[in-house]
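To start, an entry.
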Amino acid sequence: MDMTKNLLAGLGGAVALSALHESLKNVSDNMPRVDIVGKEALQKSLNYAGTGISDPDKMYTAALAADLLSNSLYYSLIGMAGKKNIWPAAVLLGLAGGAGAVALPKPLGLASDPVARTSQVKILTVAYYLAGALATGFILKSLSSE
């Protein structure tokens, strides 16, 4: 598969992940809040670079854009596995991305509660990343049948 198709499919998966998260994050207190970790990570990175974003709306937009970019690039790796391995790669990368989202905040000095405070939140966080990866797989399969 060519890189353009991989990137487009990765973007589709990232949009699916973000849409899922954004539509469900306020449903209850037991929903993942990946956005909180993303905003914290971006703010710490910007502060380290000697700048920052104080406006909450601008921070939300910047963090969402950074999430879309990074998740697009991550999910585009699924296409690198080749047409015959799209599904195993999607499942593996989806589960790995979700596990990383749950396990990495604390060692990176970020708040882990938004993605790991209960078993339900942990499972849903992993499920969201898996859903984004599967969406990427479906897009790749559609693009490869053209």
Notes: The chain has six helices and no strands.
